[in-house]
Protein 1
Amino acid sequence: MLGGNSYSPNPANVQVGQQVRWHNADSVVHTAAQNGGGFDTGLITAGATSAPITITTAGTLNYHCTVHPSMTGALNVTQ
Ligand SMILES: [Cu+2]
């Protein structure tokens, strides 16, 4: 979830194999892109929801918004 230049919940707890989608509840475009490469939602316009991304690795996956680099989030991924 996205809103007010932040991600919620953050961190989010997910399991390996789970599909994650980001919904943009803010009024400007955002993305969710894994740091150092990996998943990338691409641009999510206001009110839109990203395509589902299947999480395949366990651990803490940090990500950010490519439009607003100071906007960061994390997924805590467990097996
Ligand atoms: Cu953003």
Protein 2
Amino acid sequence: MQETVSEKHGLAAGDDVRPERPDWTIDQGWENYTADEHAVWKLLFERQTRLLPGRACDEFVAGMRALPIGADRIPDFRRLSEVLTKHTGWQVVAVPGLVPDDVFFEHLANRRFPAGNFMRKRSQLDYLQEPDVFHDVFGHVPMLMNPVMADYIQAYGKGGLKAQKLGVLDLLARVYWYTVEFGLVEQSDGLRIYGAGIASSYTESIFSTDDPSPNRVRFQLERVMRTHYRIDDFQETYFVIRNLDELLHLAEVDFAPLYERVKREPELEPGMLLDSDELLTRGTGHYHAARRHGAAA
Ligand SMILES: [Fe+2]
């Protein structure tokens, strides 16, 4: 499938929603959350907290422990920002949902993480396309406590602004997708989750770590830049870094010559494998094959 970064960060063309502030931030409106919204948070928080031991990486667990995040109520971004600022200089700012790419990158480049302030409905516990407060806070904020991830995401923001001018945002967005959102990391005791898209999803936390269906391939930058991703389902391939310090190296890469080279290479479908891939797991592909079969039936 063809993805565009706008599907991830931006509003659809023709959408006439315009915020009062030019940077699209709003007040979180913490006092306005209903008892039911806090209860949905609690449900998601408790379910995910039971699942993640042995699945989430050590840095995720350490970040979560050090933050004022608990089961009983949706976190207050002001309290989160106080702790984050002390550790890595980041803040969490509230936005109404998806924001345009340039606004998103400008925030990241300045160590502000735009987080959706709305809470998903009970009918959307396992899937919603727009990032809500559970995805953004539970999934992303613990990793922002890690100095390497903190620098990496800021570098992505700066890189995104440049890539946009060069018209190659899709190539860079894949790197973000397969690291910040859907990355796995090797630890001495096995593969672990560090991507927020996985860490905030009950079903994908299990699928990405336990299921025989997906491929798990050693991360290689240019390979990832060529690879389409799925925005509407589990990933067919997960890319695995050796340790978080690999992201430190990525933050220092000069992407301009890479874009030129990668643009000349064929693009790759999400489940495709190459002879040059270092495979940790060759997936059976059964999950997506069944979905395709179902779609064709
Ligand atoms: Fe995200």
